[in-house]
From TrEMBL:
The chain crosses the membrane at residues 45-67, 73-93, 105-125, 145-170, 182-202, 222-243, 255-278, 284-305. GO terms for biological process: proteolysis. This is PrsW family intramembrane metalloprotease. It comes from Cryobacterium ruanii. GO terms for molecular function: metallopeptidase activity. The keyword Methyltransferase does not apply. InterPro entries: PrsW. Residues 10-21 have a biased composition (Low complexity). Residues 1-30 are annotated as: Disordered. Keywords: Hydrolase, Membrane, Metalloprotease, Protease, Transmembrane, Transmembrane helix. PANTHER family: PROTEASE PRSW (PTHR36844). The keyword Protease applies.
Length: 415
């Protein structure tokens, strides 16, 4: 393999920024290099920092609450043990998100929302219920069944799902479809399960035996690390479909409610099984007959969505190729898994600047394909057109950096 050119590269028409490509049918939408765009990057950074700080403070509040009845030793032990299923879930999320990675700041916020804000919300509601029951002077009575099968599924799925809705509003330009919804929902659910597991593992250590702790870890850390993920991705899928169809912020609320219903139902089914079924054998049978098929179905959905992302990327980049922005070989390199692996392998053998340029070339080409897809679906907003123009300019620069060339006729980047 040549070390002078990226794999599959053929000399192509080098379009300087500002050049209007020859229109094909269908061709890329009209570039708008010179249309002014209000600077929003600083504002987005401030919002991201504030959101992450607030969610982080909520997580600290959860740790403080757990320490009040677990103690520092049990809290630390439970935290370390809870990291194991968390790492497993996040590894799976990373695989799901590998084709078109979401912003790290959004993923950090999602994790903190689940581990902090969602838990705090559930605790506040539970406290309110307990206070109401106590103030009723016996007129109201709580039950473990109502708490586990009715209250917990509703409160927890609303709290987690609202985090996905917040991300839909906050990072809409990165929220392209169902796969993105699955990524954000799974990350939030992983954070929620993490904090919840700390409590369960800590209590098993302080109030039970070694056997109790082993059974608790087996049930929560081995058998069901993806349980919360399976529930909450229903909301992520609904909001992802809303994003693909170009739903407004108000319309997204309706999709959120549609996804919330099956999320609550699955959560209630999971919690209710422990009350309806008696004995370890019955619970194991329920797990094999009900939960395993649901988990397999979730895996199949995720695999389908990943393949759909690859198909969209290949199709939309081919349209740009027809208009002269890429060669057919470059489309294959950027839009297929095998092509990307070969390109990244080539990049790893180059100096740092070419290696980074190749990674950016692939990432921004994927973003461009999804921007193009939204435009084709009728989401013709000035901001989206400007994003397309900016990405096209960046891609020409990345290509030049990969080839070690100087891009001629450079025009000012979109403001």
């Amino acid at each position: 393999m040549s070390l002078d050119r990226p794999p599959g590269h053929q000399p192509a028409a080098q379009h300087p920024p500002g050049h209007q490509p020859v229109q094909a049918s269908p061709g890329p939408v009209h570039p708008v290099w010179n249309e002014p765009v209000p600077p929003r990057r600083i504002g987005r950074i401030v919002v991201a920092v504030v959101g992450i700080v607030l969610a982080g403070l909520a997580l600290l509040a959860v740790f403080a609450y757990l320490m009040t009845f677990l103690g520092s030793g049990a809290l630390l032990f439970g935290l370390l043990l809870a990291l194991l299923p968390l790492a497993l879930v996040l590894f799976a999320v990373r695989w799901i998100d590998s084709w078109d990675p979401e912003p790290r700041s959004a993923l950090v916020f999602a994790l903190l929302w689940g581990a902090g804000i969602s838990i705090v919300s559930a605790l506040v509601v539970d406290l309110g219920v307990q206070v109401t029951i106590a103030a009723s002077a016996g007129a109201l009575a709580g039950s473990d069944f109502a708490s586990a099968v009715i209250q917990a599924p509703i409160v927890e799925e609303v709290a987690k799902g609202f985090g996905v809705l917040v991300l839909f509003w906050a990072v809409r330009r990165h929220f392209d479809g169902p796969n993105d919804g699955v990524v954000y929902a799974s990350t939030i659910a992983a954070g929620f399960a993490f904090s919840e597991n700390i409590q369960y593992f800590g209590l098993a250590l302080t109030e039970g035996t070694a056997q109790t702790l082993g059974v608790t870890f087996l049930l929560r850390g081995v058998f069901s690390p993806f349980a919360h993920v399976t529930f909450t991705i229903c909301i992520g899928l609904a909001l992802g479909l809303a994003a693909r169809r170009g739903a407004s912020k108000g319309g997204a609320v309706g999709c959120f409610l549609i996804g919330l219903a099956p999320a609550i139902a699955l959560h209630a089914l999971w919690n209710g099984a422990t009350f309806v079924l008696a004995g370890d054998a019955s619970v194991l049978l329920y797990y094999v007959v009900v939960q395993v098929p649901l988990f397999i179905a979730a895996i199949l959905v995720v695999v389908f969505l990943r393949r759909q992302e690859a198909r969209i990327t290949l199709r939309r980049l081919h349209e740009y190729s027809q208009a002269g922005w890429f060669t057919a070989a470059e489309v294959s390199m950027l839009g297929t898994g095998a092509g990307r692996r070969q390109a990244l392998l080539w990049g790893n053998r180059q100096d740092r600047s070419k290696k980074v340029a190749m990674r950016h070339f692939i990432a921004d080409a994927t973003r461009l394909a999804f921007v193009r897809d939204r435009l084709v679906r009728g989401q013709n907003t000035p901001a989206l057109h400007a994003t397309e123009a900016r990405l096209l300019e960046l891609l020409m620069r990345h290509r030049a950096d990969v080839l070690g060339q100087t891009l001629p006729g450079s025009a000012p980047a979109a403001q």
